[in-house]
Amino acid sequence: MRALIEQVRAILWNVWHYPDIMDFVDVLLLAIIIYQLIIHVRNTRVSQTLKGIVVLLIATWLSDVLGMRSIHALLSWITNAGPVMLIVLFQSEIRRILEEIGNGSLLESGSFLSESQTRENLIDEMVLAVMHMSKRRIGALIVFENGIRLNDVIATGTHVDGIISQPLIENIFEPKTPLHDGAVVIRDDRVVAAACLLRLSDTTGVGRDLGTRHRAGIGVTEVSDATVIIVSEETGTISLAEGGNLVRNLDEQAVRQTLGRLYIKESKDRWLLPLLHLKQRSQTSHDEQSSNTKQ
């Protein structure tokens, strides 16, 4: 640990006292690389592990400063084995980052809701699809991605990338079609992938009357902040999974409220939507004033 600190100190001293143009280029490129890596992992489960690694490094440094030799020896051993542990833990993520660097998608930004489709239309399409499948007793497993990216889940399915619509959702889950078995992952206003594989829940409190579809829906919410809507193939019952919990027997109003909450929450994270909300409020106020004037 001390050797690392001394190396960092030497680098900073040289950069401060003997800077040239290549030093600035070097620092700039390093900053860009670190920034892109942070952007790439901040909305994934990897970010939680990285926070744990930072805490481990701080604890190692503090144990050295405070003279806790036993603790420091143990933490130093874990830290020295860190590179191997990172490769084992993040092998799939490392492979995915290298693939994205290869195809140039690492610098792409997240998508916004399409201008041609309002949130209200999107919610209407989803509600119609879910209720129609419930009446026909067509099993469905729909995963709504929130803050944590589900790239590992998406990689197990078939890429779709289509705007949400009632026909698209129903056709995917139509029995005996190629994509009906598995989960659909939705990001913003698009169906990203279908026929995705989900880990089953290990919770012992799940009712025995629940099948694999419900256990898979609960499972993905135990390891992410996703919201899952499940339609039972046997009974047509609509269920909602969030945070490892399952709420059953949803009606049309409950489904609509759930979707409204999801997309209102999503819209708060978009830098453009506050302007749209202001415009909508101004338009509403203008309409009300016009109505009052006519009266």
Q: What are its keywords?
A:
single chain; alpha+beta; YojJ-like (1; 2 domains; seven-stranded mixed β-sheet; disordered C terminus
Describe this structure as you would to a colleague.
- Helix 3 runs antiparallel to helix 4, helix 7 packs parallel to helix 9 and helix 7 runs antiparallel to helix 11.
- The model is unreliable at 105-117 and 268-295 (pLDDT under 50).
- A 7-stranded mixed β-sheet has the order 2-4-3-1-5-6-7, with helices on both faces.
- 58% of the residues lie in helices and 12% in strands.
- The protein starts with a helix and ends with a helix.
- The protein has helices at 2-17, 21-41, 46-65, 69-80, 82-89, 91-103, 119-136, 151-154, 166-173, 212-222, 252-268, 273-294, and strands at residues 140-144, 158-163, 183-187, 190-196, 227-231, 238-242, 245-247.
- The chain folds into 2 domains: 2-103, no CATH class; 119-270, 3-Layer(aba) Sandwich (YojJ-like (1).
